[in-house]
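Changelog excerpt

This revision adds worked examples to the README so contributors can see how folded entries look when concatenated. The first example is reproduced verbatim below.
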Amino acid sequence: VEYWEEWTAAPGGTWNVNSLMIRVTHSNSGPAAANNITAGRIVVTHAAPATTTSIANGNWNAAGTWNNGVPDLTKVAVVDGETVTVSTTTDTGYQLTVSSGTLTISDTQLLTIGEGGVQINGGTVTLDLRGDLTCTGGDTTVASGATLNIGSNNVKEAIYTATGRTFTSAGTVVINSSGAPALTCATINCTAGSVT
């Protein structure tokens, strides 16, 4: 991704590019005629996030569960056929993709996903009892054949939060949480499947 900004007079200010801030300053030294910026260009590049894919059953924060290190806010985490368990409140990822297998967020634990959002393309994601999933930047998609369980057995509060984002499902979404709100987002689109 490349972003560029051009100007025809001294900017003397700040541009905001999503969450990146660029500040251009000019120091006045030398003859007055040489101190004016009359044209310029700033180029900012953003590298695509790395991907790490599950290779063994295990905890989210265990290096042996992944082929490219433990997910963090700079990595896309792909659960692909294994059972991965979130067992802390500090686990993160740039994007979550569940191709197959199972992701379980244990009781009272939290998984925070950043700008890449959540894609449940197959398999099952379960927020167990009071397990929470927070998506801070991207949208959520539950594909046909995939399942998202929010809570289990109507016992406690499990919360899926994607404030200001879009939640789209063609799969199965089951809300078993006795607490409210169990699902928070800006827009819910149910294109097929079911939400119960």
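The second example, added in the same revision:
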Amino acid sequence: FIAQKEEADRKAADLKAAEEAAKKAPVLQTSTEDKKAPVTTTNQESNPPAPIGGGTSGTVTAAEGQAIVAEAANYLGTPYVWGGKSPGGFDCSGFINYVMGDFGFELTRSSYGLAELGRNVKLSDLRPGDLMFFKGRNVNSTNVGHVSMVVEVQENEIKMIHASSSRGVVIDNFTASSYYVPRFIKAKRLDYGNRD
């Protein structure tokens, strides 16, 4: 437990240092060499709605991330159901899939599969709508077993919404979590292609 606490404290200090450095660093354009993960739309009309991703890099813009987060918040308190993918009950990836489905997109169903989409994002660069991936219950695992969505980023605080197996859909402060900090694997920003 002491080693986990020290690791959590170290990650929190690294996060704070990274946030301070990010404030001083110039804004960089996203490379066109970043992996692009196309997402198919479920709407086959002749004029389908424009996909999320109006930014020049094709990734979810800050405003779009806020819209996604607002939709996700509508499901706070929904119970956890293993394999659940509806407002009657969600598991973690079912929740992300359902929310994104409200925007006309169909994603892969597993947290592990979701972790392969989009591009990696540093903790210091997170914004609402980004996804965070974690080990499951086994902290010694190297496999993705849980996914959450970033809802708010402030200095020393990253809030995320997710379907917790014990509490249903909730918002947690990642940075202050002794459970999630040592299980963090990576964060991703999904890419839905350009609007052209």
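Reviewer comment on example two: The chain is about 25% helix and 25% strand. Residues 10-58 have pLDDT under 50 and may be disordered.
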